[in-house]
Write a structure and sequence with these properties.
The protein is mainly alpha-helical. The protein has a single domain (2-348, 403-530), classed as Amino acid/polyamine transporter I. 66% of the residues lie in helices and 1% in strands. It is built from 24 helices and two strands. It has a two-stranded antiparallel ribbon. A hairpin with a 2-residue loop joins strand 1 (407-409) and strand 2 (412-414). Helix 4 packs across helix 17 (327-361). The radius of gyration is 22 Å and the shape is globular.
Amino acid sequence: MESIMGGSMANSEVSDVGDVSHGEDARMVALGYREELKRVLSFFDNFSVAFSYLSPMVGIYSLYALGLGTGGPRYIWTIPIVVAFMTLVALVFGELASEYPLSGALYQYGKYNVGPRYGWYVGWIYGFALLATVASVDSGAVLYIVTLVNLWFKTHLDPSNHVTIFVIVGVFIVLSGILNSVGAKIMGRVANIGVYVETIGTFGVFIALAIHGFHQGFGFLFSTQHVQQVAENPWGVNLAGNWWIGAALVAVLANAYIFYGFESAGDISEETIDAHKEVPRAMRGAILYGGIASFVLVLGLLLATPKEGIKGVVAGGIPVLFASLPSFLTDFFLVMVVIAFFSCGTAVQGAGARVAYALARDGAMPGSNWLKRVSPRFKTPANAVLVGVIIPFLFMLLVLVNPSTPVHILWFTYPAKVNALFALVSFGVSGIYLAFFLTVLGAFIARRRGWVPSGSFTLGKWGMPVTITGLVYLGAMFINICWPSSLASGRALFNYGWITLLVMAIIVIVGALYEMIARPDLKIASHRVENK
């Protein structure tokens, strides 16, 4: 592994910094850097960014119908399973964040634990996934914005229209870029609002639906409504007639697609006060509070299901459940949803920009000298934020790909009437999970080589068991996400057959070719030598 990945930094260089004071300046100097960004974010700001990225509202309002349609009401019990395992991952990340409180998070963890080449690959995959996620998250707000506009102004906008999607998503991306450019504190304030909105939009919806009367009893939560049978499935997909090895493995993806993003707390470490201590707390808090809020929201939605059953809800989505609420409450909750989408997109864009900045600062990106520049006025990575605007804009061109009939290319088929911009979320999630897996694998390799964490937060004797368990979970879930399938299966609702695996392969191959030609890992290594 050492020769393939460019050598380990875990044994030689990390041991040199283990005894250094945890003061931010001293820690950064020991790791080879100097302060450039403005350290203004409090614990709550850091937590807010992580929680806004995780965003239970965005995830559930986007994927509830898919989860319900593939797993039935019983799919709610996959939430605590996913949250429990991802909490283990958050513990591993917290330990790494405490040891290496630097912008770029996952890239830095891989670089120090295994080596420059390994870290670069993690940063490449993670950065692409983040910037793809910006476009896919913002596109999810289109339906809710159009619904509000049509209600308020009596218009007839079509949420599937290319121009409508392009304009709304474009405005979101640009506004997020402006806010991310004018200071980390502004980004933190947007995220703070996101936390309040998420709280209202999860617990508030539950209370409102409860007041106006639930239609189902608690026994409904343990039923499948026979979704595992093709004849009864609302999507008409084949789940092999078995809930446990068919429907459950697909339905769990509705929650696997939600519970990440907590790692973005580490991406903004260099702008957070007492990052070595506060970032691990923020990661744990984001995943746990996100799990509670998500469970409460899904619980309320399920209990509010009409007596007629789940098919109408799967077909019409969450707005069907709001039909019983007063119109002013419906409008209010729709506004909350839109704000949550914007807050989430802003947080993801900010995290992606920090990854680009971290790579550029090490000379590991094309145009690194330009990309690593920090705004002298706002002390933000302004040029990296600009890239965080441009690349999602390029991804947004996928809105033009929406075939009316299935498109057959080689051995795979792109399904009809599936907008490629919406399908982009599938790559974003698979890229995140691969980057997570490689990061935890890096921690495992470092431990095997003798690395002993020395940050403010450590797992002690539980370090190796937690790392191995998290690694196994991430590997299994990554396979579950990417595993190719026929378009008649339930899995195709998430990975679109071979599309997710194909896009992942393209990103990895392009990254490998660039790495072999440009050798950015050598620039990372020389940077480390120059700054020791």
